[in-house]
Amino acid sequence: MLVYPSSIDLSSRTLRHLTEQLIIRQQEIGTRWRRLPVGRQALLVLAHLRCGDTYAQRASGFGIGVATVYRYIREAIEVLAALAPTLAKAMGTAQTKAFVILDGTLLPIDRIAADTPYYSGKHKRHGMNVQVLTDPFGRLLWASPALPGSTHDLTAARSHGIVDALAAAGLKRWADKAYQGAGRHIRVPFRGRRLKRWKRQHNSSHAKIRCVGEQAMATLKGWRLLRKLRRSTNRITDIVKAILVLHHAATRG
To answer: What pLDDT was estimated at residue 71?
Structure first.
């Protein structure tokens, strides 16, 4: 197998943050020796998450076994996922913002046609439904646990407690048509083709605000591992949480 140098479009702040968390982890469990120094382990994990390369590709690039790569990546994801903000904490942060945007996205997975619960009729593919809260500048505030792709956005938001949390926070919040029926506290566009002029104007201004949330989705899927997940659906929630923590580490300050 040929090996060549490459780059990752992430800041050194992200690498330092993950390295610090792994050092804390190794001190807690009393690790004495590993095939890779902690900084190299952090780099391996970031390369996997950002570039979406397979374990075999990472093993070849770092000169270690596939099983070792699997353990290193799984350990780092668990460490990061434990640091992800809860919905309650995200609500506290959101209360300092002018408004928030609620949206859902489908993370594609490799499943066969028989896996009906994971098939999204809207997107015509198998995936996992993740709900996201975004601030007025398109920055990710919170990401929900992943549910099967057949779950409707409004059903997912209710099951995660997002609808009730937003109502209790008293924030201005914007969402798309999928959230109609969530209550008056969530602003959605008008439905229908023959709308009055003022309703069309409302939908236009609503879309301009809501499109900021699409920037957050683009940021999330900038981590190429999320573009096609080839792993157990039970681990996808931790992966999303880990990426959210790395995103916050890169943008804070």
So the answer is: 95
Q: What is the mean pLDDT of residues 163-181?
A: 87
- Rounded to whole angstroms, the Cα distance separating 168 from 40 reads 44
Rounded alpha-carbon distances, angstroms, from residue 212 to 33, 165, 200, 245: 46, 21, 19, 20
Cα pseudo-dihedral 192, 198, 204, 206, rounded to 10? -90
Distance CA 144, CA 129 (A): 9
**From residue 93, how far is each of 54, 99, 196, 252 by CA, in Å?**
36, 11, 37, 13
Provide the whole-model pTM: 0.90
> Would you say how long the chain is, in residues?
253
- Report pLDDT for 2: 67
Q: What is the mean pLDDT of residues 21-50?
A: 92
How many Cα atoms are found within 13 Å in the side-chain-facing hemisphere of 62? 30
* Mean pLDDT confidence for 246-251: 90
Percent of the chain clearing pLDDT 70 (strictly above): 96
